[in-house]
Design a protein that fits this description.
With 326 residues, the chain is α/β, with parallel strands linked by helices. It folds into 2 domains: 2-164 and 209-245 and 316-325, Vaccinia Virus protein VP39 (Rossmann fold), CATH 3.40.50.150; 172-208 and 247-308. The protein is built from 9 helices and 9 strands. The strands form 2 sheets. A 7-stranded mixed β-sheet has the order 3-2-1-4-5-9-8, sandwiched between helices. Strand 1 (11-17), helix 1 and strand 2 (44-51) form a beta-alpha-beta unit.
Length: 326
């Protein structure tokens, strides 16, 4: 994508929205940095890493400067921290040549406040609750796109790649979402903790993961109703396809080692749920109680995965959209 973008000034600006600790994002950014450094060796290249203030910024910059990082590609490269939500402006207007977002844009701007009896996540919601959450998700996605339209310079490109969903008549709501078995396993574990009196029934009833994995059709909806987006962006690509590696089970390579397999799933799920659970579903009266609830949940989840023999595998369909600012 970067190869298609010609520099428009003496400075080149790349932005990664939702960078996290950089372990994956750095490898995605590196080819774009190399593309510009090779074609414009004398120009300054700024990489804007965008994430919340509580992000582990030390680890991010260690990755950027590490053996697999991009800092060594050119003495003109400078990483920049842009702290804050990507649902607001993250860079000056008309400044970004290339923007990327990997595995981040499915997060919602706010924790939903919707009764969700029988469901832990959006894909199993039904009726008014599902419609309400979809409206929130669509508002957030439209806001994300609007902010990026302001930040990209004319001719600049944006690529968003994250977890997606595909039509499936046999699934709840006619949609099959990434991670369906794993999220349902999480709900089962939460139910056992309710039954054992460790968390309250109303805590589970009123909790939803603040995510929405879009289908291709949902991804394109804002361009159909928002004239500014339709006129401002050219849609170069929009697709939802299975992941290239282990699309049916991200840890399929470990399936014959049940303990290792379960431990990998435990760490994977904990990495993206603990912060949310800590402040909502598993929050106790004291910090000690909250910590105990968290450990109990993930230990139970690990046991369920170990005994499930692949039943709760995390499937991945990747949603990718590439846009060019007109």
């Amino acid at each position: 994508m970067a190869d298609k973008v010609l520099a428009a000034s003496d400075e080149i600006h790349i932005a990664d929205y939702g960078c996290g600790t950089g372990s994956n994002a750095i490898l995605s950014i590196k080819p774009a940095v190399k593309s510009f450094a090779d074609r414009y060796p004398g120009r300054a290249i700024y990489v804007h890493h965008v994430d919340q203030a509580e992000n582990d910024w030390n680890t991010l910059f260690e990755c950027a400067a590490g053996q697999d990082g991009y800092i060594t590609l050119s003495s003109n490269v400078r990483p920049v921290a842009s702290m804050g939500s990507f649902f607001s402006m993250a860079a000056p207007a008309s400044s970004i040549d290339v923007g990327t977002s990997f595995g981040a844009s499915h997060w919602l701007s706010l924790q939903p406040s919707i009764s969700s009896k029988g469901a832990l996540w959006f894909a199993d919601l039904q009726g008014e609750a599902r419609l309400e959450l979809k409206k929130q998700a669509q508002r957030d996605w439209e806001t994300f796109l609007t902010m990026r339209l302001r930040e990209l310079r004319r001719g600049g490109r944006l690529m968003v790649s994250t977890l997606g969903a595909i039509p499936d008549a046999g699934e709840v709501n006619g949609i099959c979402s990434s991670g369906r078995h794993t999220y349902r396993a999480m709900y089962h574990v939460a139910e056992t903790m309710v039954n054992d009196g460790l968390i309250s029934e109303h805590a589970l009833r009123d909790f939803l993961m603040p995510i929405w994995f879009m289908s291709r059709e949902e991804t394109l909806e804002p361009f159909q109703r928002n004239k500014d987006l339709a006129d401002g962006f050219s849609i170069e690509r929009a697709e939802v396809v299975p992941a290239q590696h282990n699309p049916k089970d991200i840890f399929a390579d470990q399936i014959n080692a049940p303990q290792e397999y379960a431990a990998s799933y435990k760490g994977f799920v904990r990495s993206f749920t603990e912060s949310t659970f800590r402040h909502s579903l598993l929050r106790g009266e004291t910090d000690q109680t909250t910590k105990a609830n968290l450990n109990e949940f993930y230990d139970r989840f690990e046991t369920l995965i170990k005994n499930g023999a692949g039943k709760y595998a995390f499937e991945i369909w990747l949603l990718t959209i590439e846009l060019r600012k007109q």
